[in-house]
Amino acid sequence: MSTTVTPTAAPAFPAGSVLGYPRIGPRRELKKALEAFWAGRTSADEVEAVAADLRRRTRTRLAELGLATDAPAIPSAFSFYDHVLDAAALVGAVPARFADLQDADGRLDLAGYSTVARGRGDDLPLEMTKWFDTNYHYLVPEIGPGTAFRYASDRPVAEFAEGLADGVLTRPVVVGPVTFLALSKPSEDAPAGFHPLDRLDDLLPVYARLLTELAAAGATWVQLDEPALVSDSVGVPAEALHEATTRAYRALATELARPDRPAILVAAPYGDLGPALPVLAATDVDGIAIDLVRGEAPTVVVGGLAGKTVVGGVVDGHNIWRADLDAKLAVLERLETLAARAVTVGTSTSLFHVPHTVEDEPALDATLASWLAFADEKVREVAVLAEGLTEGREAVHEQLLAASDAVRSRASAPGVVRPEVRERAAGLTDEQFRRGPFAERKSAQAARLRLPALPTTTIGSFPQTPDIRRARAAFGKGELTAEQYEDEMKAEIRRVVELQERIGLDVLVHGEPERNDMVQYFAENLDGFAVTRNGWVQSYGSRCTRPSILWGDVSRPAPITVAWSTYTQSLTEKPVKGMLTGPVTILAWSFVRDDQPLGDTANQVALALRDEIADLEAAGIGIVQVDEPALRELLPLREKDHAAYLDWSVRSFRLSTAGVRPETQIHTHLCYSEFGQIMDAIDGLDADVTSIEAARSKMEILGDIAAAGYPRAVGPGVYDIHSPRVPGEAEVTELLSEAVRTIDVDQLWVNPDCGLKTRRYEEVTPSLEHLVAATRTVRATL
Ligand code: GLN
Ligand code: ZN
């Protein structure tokens, strides 16, 4: 590692650092404080105090775990809600409908910031969308020709100063200007053809001001996150992104020189920089953090790196397995041939995608726990690798051995490889991935199900009432016996069936009362999975999920849903739809083993589901829905990787569903409506009926489906369940009439956009009544 110091060299960068850390708190302290504030139970000052305490504990913890406090190893990367919203607040970019929340200097207080995130009355909040290929959702800023950029928040500077006052030199983290604009959408008043990136030159002075303020406060390094550079899916052509990068960092790194600014680290998590690496290297930024878990280590010397620090992101910020430190060290050593000024160790992404610490999981099997690294354990891994890199392998010999032992233990532990699962997967034939011709299925299903035109149904869940939650909690604590719990759930199913019959729906569901979560429920009932107690991960704002851990070969010890579905069917003459979560979604919303291709793991899950479907079919259930809302989510960021992903994901869905007889109808539900890139894949699923979100976009997607000549049935959502609003009967009639004009009526089903579990009966009952009434009206016109 070169340590040549020239007068113009950037200040030293620490040998080990992390790109970010969980911000919700080990006991979800921030969530609780925010929700109390929103409910009017606490003051903004109290939330600020909780947040300051959390930041202080984070700094202390990271220092204890081995990160330097006198060099900028510890990120200052707190957020009350979302880091993209923070960037919007920083630059004063608030949509016109919320302009009244800003003070004369463009600042938002905590209440105003919360309102932009959550909406008020008819003022919709910023739209929420997925953050790269993670399960985190960010708020989409709205930028127009008139957006008045200005330096409107001193939070990054204040939080840096807060650390310094505690004796910790942190590294402020802010979303970079290119990514900020690339992820924004044009404001409502923007003319056609406008893109927020058109405003780059107007935005850069605000970033420049931030950098000078940070330098004045004593910051030596700042981290600007530019993950847009690893993706082909941000809606901006690569050339435009590259040109913007060059322009942005000419302004921030060349025209603004040290010491008027801190040294700049540009971080590019979530994937391979590819052609963007030489573009970044050619700028005057002082360091580049590259993702070496998802991305490739550059093997050729890239011009421009010679004066720069390279942060090798070898520790996976996105998954929870202990790293093979020996192998990681080798990757870092190879990086030294790049002839950068320095090579240091980092995480591939921020650690906020993983829970706080394995130490908080006493109930987890000890062997499994010994294979895991949550955020804190990953910080230790970074510290060990940093020591290995600076002091030599010998200095960390013991730790390297312990890590290799853990990897070996995982490879050979019982349950990780199960011969019977392997044999079954190895013996799969093409036949098992294929159903018979659709025309034949269609007539067999019509004869069996005898449904009216425009059949009505729901997506599966009915409201999870406080009573249901209370019963589940009591069962968890042992206050209810299994039998009592089952009785309560059955009573709920009876209520849900009665309601659906009274409303007049055609295909009924059981309502999913027994499921805490559509993935965890299956994880708890399949071999090869574990669940955590405190493993919360921020999903958006104050919302957290607790992903399951898929650690071993997957199989189904016993039928899971069959008793619930047959009980439901016993209550009604109408067909009851069985309800399962598909293999891709189970993988997407869990932490998945990284020791074999995802497609192999997906096929194991698919075979377990295939057995479940066979049992449902044998028990007389004529319709089974296999939900795949995450199919679009897992789509890789680089286009060159799409085909391979779509191949294994579609195959696994087919494997799970293709074992049924022609008269058994397979449904799938895909949630979102951005299907442009995956239309062929949807066709490939070969489901008899596909339900999708369509209410908000006013059935737009149907035009594409019709134009593509899609032959099977679709259920475009006619009721937007994401809001408490009850759609009127006339409104649903209008949407349905539009649907009937767009696509063959034979192909149409009628359903809400998604499941109803987050809604209340006061909203759901009238909405479904309107849905059925509207359907009758439209049927009468056919
Ligand atoms: N069947 C699930 C439900 O209704 C589907 C949920 C989803 O698509 N996310 O809740
Ligand atoms: Zn959905």
UniProtKB/TrEMBL annotation:
Which Gene3D superfamilies is this protein grouped with?
A: 3.20.20.210
Q: How is the cofactor bound?
A: Binds 1 zinc ion per subunit. Binds 2 Zn(2+) ions per subunit.
> Would the keyword RNA-binding turn up in this protein's UniProt record?
no
Q: Which residues bind L-methionine?
A: I459, G460, S461, E512, D627
HAMAP family for this protein = Meth_synth (MF_00172)
Q: Which gene encodes it?
A: metE
Name recorded for this polypeptide:
5-methyltetrahydropteroyltriglutamate--homocysteine methyltransferase
The residues listed in the UniProt record as binding L-homocysteine, with positions renumbered to this chain, are I459, G460, S461, E512, D627
Query: What catalytic activity does the UniProt entry give for this protein?
Result: 5-methyltetrahydropteroyltri-L-glutamate + L-homocysteine = tetrahydropteroyltri-L-glutamate + L-methionine
| InterPro entries (alphabetical) | Cbl-indep_Met_Synth_N, Cobalamin-indep_Met_synthase, Met_Synth_C/arc, UROD/MetE-like_sf
This protein's cofactor list reads: Zn(2+)
Reported function: Catalyzes the transfer of a methyl group from 5-methyltetrahydrofolate to homocysteine resulting in methionine formation.
- So what EC number does this one have? 2.1.1.14
What does the entry list as the binding residues for Zn(2+)? H669, C671, E693, C754
The UniProt keywords, alphabetically, are: Amino-acid biosynthesis, Metal-binding, Methionine biosynthesis, Methyltransferase, Repeat, Transferase, Zinc
Give the enzyme class.
transferase
Instruction: Report whether Repeat shows up as a keyword of the record.
Output: yes
Detail which positions bind Zn(2+) 1.
H669, C671, E693, C754
